[in-house]
Amino acid sequence: MSRERHRPPRIGIVGLGYMGLATGLAFAAHGARVVGYDLKPAVRSSVAAGRAPYREVGLAELLRDQRRTGRFRVVDGLSSLVAESEGIFLCVPTPSRPSGRIDLGPLRRSVAEVGRALRVPSGYRVVVVKSTVVPGTTSTVVAPSLARHSRRDSSQLGVAANPEFLAEGSLVRDATAPERIVVGTSDRRALAWLRRAYRGFGAPILALSPSGAELVKYSSNAFLALKVSFANEIARLSDRLGVPVDDVMAAVGRDSRIGARFLRAGPGFGGSCFEKDLRALAARSRELGVRLRSAEAALRINAEQLDYVRALVRSALGPLRGRRIALLGLAFKAGTDDVRESRALPIAADLVASGAIVRGHDPAARATFQSAWDRSGPRGPGRLELCESVGAALSGADGAILQADWPEYARWPAAWTRAMRRPVLLDLRREVDPDSAGRNGLTIVALGAGRSEGGGS
After folding, report:
1. Domain membership of residue 388 as a residue range
2. 58 and 172 in contact (C-beta within 8 Å)?
3. How many CB atoms lie within 10 A of CB 429?
4. Is the Cα dihedral 203, 204, 210, 216 positive or negative?
5. Per residue in 247-263, pLDDT tens?
6. Has residue 285 got a pLDDT over 90?
7. What is the CATH number of the domain that holds 365?
8. Domains in the chain: how many in total?
9. How far is 125 from 158, CA to CA, in rounded Å?
10. How many CB atoms lie under 10 A from the CB of residue 159?
11. What's the distance, CA 240 to chain centroid?
12. How are beta strands 181-184 and 205-208 bridged, if at all?
């Protein structure tokens, strides 16, 4: 075996967002020498100083550890990154357009800049598309652009697709100990380098074509979104029948053909992936003459779930004008500060538009929620206040809504109930135990708990 195969791989990460930073740190934790770059100076300076720009379980500790080992560094330009790296992972955003198609602008610009930087150093390089892109992008957009800008041929440059399967709230675990690694390349040399880069991760490496690897990513997210949407529809039926949805889904999930994960009903899926990826997959399918009705149905169900939540708010909390409503959980789910597609945003907007005073709380996402709220403009006669403690949010409240499943909310001490003027909780995640809360005088209306609205069991 050659000396090169024993030497730690040298990896460059272009884009230090949630996914890029976790990916780079995971490689470093497995022994690679990693350099990272982000277009935003504030992100670069924060990471370089050892401060994680995002709230994720274990991310700050992993960053400190890998900076201390010297295996992870930040550079101020792509030229430096390319010069130091054998493999360059593109982890830049691919946001959604109004049409549903993804915006490849950030990726195209990064590819062009990386390509120009590749003109200088000698030796074989691999460029890996980690960003989520529709099938065909790596082969028809990225590879030709890299060849044109770098002036390298296939003997000097490998191109691959390597989609990520990271869930916010468990980024570190998913990045450092993945269930599987999917790579797509038609270049044996690039595949061999990727196998070396992932040596030690302990996960099976599944080799496909670039388009096949890209399709795996979208297919996985579409299927998971379908499971969530199915559970949400069953939750509505459960409420009509007076049947707890969690009992039903627990029994359904015991079927090994189905599995229990992603069958927990709630206010609808959010985050940076499902909505965007479903829209992109449906749009790409239409371009190819295929109607992907499953993806379209999941999007419709998710939109209808928000309408169902709006109806629950009106039913549980009554007239809203002038009322103080506590909104607990502003991130799209627990364990992260990401508010992209969070149901807390439209819920808060509806409350404020109805004249309510909304007091929001989140253990991690107050700053990101405030930024997203400020970008959205004026809301109506009510107003939004963000609180540093749950007690402050609940003080004098005429009702509360639990939107994200932070474990801090599940304990619900009696003091919280006493702080409220009208102790009613709309629990969209079924986090708070109704029996213990009821003994403390809290009335709970829980989505999917079997409220028997107009039906019988």
Report:
1. 310-446
2. yes
3. 23
4. negative
5. 999 999 999 999 999 99
6. yes
7. 3.40.50.720
8. 2
9. 6
10. 25
11. 31
12. parallel
